[in-house]
Amino acid sequence: MTSDIQYPDNFIERLHAVWGEGFLSPGGAEEVREIVRDIDLAQKTVLDIGFGTAGPAITLARELGAGQVVGVDVEEPLHRRAKAIVDAAGLSERIDLRLVEPGPLPFGDASFDVVFSKDSIIHIPDKGALFAEVRRVLKPGGTFAASDWLSGEGPDAEAALRHMGGHLHFEMATAPQMEKILRDAGFKSVSSVDRNAWYAIVVDEELRTLERVYDDLVARVGKEVVDPWLQVRRGLARAVQGGGLRPTHLRGTSP
Ligand SMILES: C[S@@+](CC[C@H](N)C(=O)[O-])C[C@H]1O[C@@H](n2cnc3c(N)ncnc32)[C@H](O)[C@@H]1O
User: Fold this and answer.
1) How many A from CA of 82 to the centre of ligand 1?
2) How do residues 113-163 score in pLDDT, each as one tens digit?
3) I need a labelling partner for 35 at 20 to 30 A (CA). Which of 28, 98, 178, 197 fits?
4) Is 19 in the pocket of ligand 1 (CB under 6 A)?
5) For the ranges 2-16, 76-90, 133-147, which has the lowest average pLDDT?
6) Is the CB of 119 under 6 A from ligand 1?
7) pLDDT one-digit tens code per residue, 157-196
């Protein structure tokens, strides 16, 4: 989808400066390993929803031994950049990245052993429809393992979240809401693990990184872009440290 680009090239640059080449969300390869901890991916076929710039897909294939990773995302600049990163990593035969329209997944029933996603479902408004699709494309007994940015509960959480996203469109749910949507879609053994305490520490390190690379970033994308974005980043830090933003790991098993 090219009509509404939320991740243009200069935003990708900024996110890579904070989270590392190939990552548009916190924690890098270590957090990817944590999301799929205790799931044997060796030779498995994995779908990655919202591949971004392919850092997670590369971790799944190269470090965790997934046989085939198929990724879907909706923005052309990301697809182009991710393909270049995968090619440079020499993994284009094991990582197949597809630019798709939002909506039904373009795969047959029972196509995947594992469906993975990192911090992308926040952008998808109809989570019930998404999880019905995830269940459809998973093999019986297959696993959904994801991380997503969820919201805390109550008016303080809402206030904290209001200025956090900048230009991004977010549709946030709470952990109990997400668990219910997964169960309603037919998933078994649904669970969630709150990562707020972890990210509340990491977000401080991210602000320090940004201060360190500030001059370089300004040279690359301009002060008029970097300065307002730093304000957004500070809002995000407040949201996570105040408990409004709760990165969360989600799991469910297809019956
Ligand atoms: C915060 S980024 C995370 C990217 C990557 N998973 C990572 O952790 O580096 C969110 C991603 O979700 C993608 N996205 C948004 N709507 C989507 C949809 N309907 N289907 C698939 N991906 C979507 C965005 O284009 C973006 O790549």
Assistant:
1) 12
2) 999 999 999 999 999 999 999 999 999 999 999 999 999 987 777 777 877
3) 98
4) no
5) 2-16
6) yes
7) 777 787 777 888 888 999 999 999 999 999 999 999 999 9
Ligand 1 centre and the CA of 49: distance in Å? 7
The full length of the chain comes to: 255
Q: How many domains does the chain have?
A: 1
In ligand 1, the atom with minimum distance to the C-alpha of 24 is: 9
Q: pLDDT by residue (tens digit) across 90-100?
A: 999 999 999 99
Locate tokens 């548009």: which residue? 24
What is the per-residue pLDDT for 155?
76
Q: Pairing between strand 112-118 and 188-194? A: unpaired
234 falls within a domain: no
For the CA of 75, the nearest atom of ligand 1: 25
Contacts of 195 (CB under 8 A, 6+ apart): 147, 246, 247, 248, 249
> Which pLDDT belongs to residue 3?
55
Q: Measuring from atom 22 of ligand 1, which residue has the nearest CA?
A: 50
Query: Residue 70: enclosing H or E segment and its boundaries?
Result: strand 68-73
Whether pLDDT at 2 is above 60: no
Q: Is residue 58 part of a domain?
A: yes
CATH number, residue 121: 3.40.50.150
Classify strands 138-151 and 245-253 as parallel, antiparallel or unpaired.
antiparallel
Beta bridge partners of 138: 112
Asked, for residue 63, whether it belongs to a domain, the answer is: yes
**What is d(CA 149, CA 151) in angstroms, rounded to the nearest whole number?**
7
In a domain, 45, yes or no: yes
Beta bridge partners of 61: none
Question: What is the per-residue pLDDT for 209?
Answer: 92
pTM of the entire predicted model: 0.96
* CB-ligand 1 contact for 118 (6 Å cutoff): yes
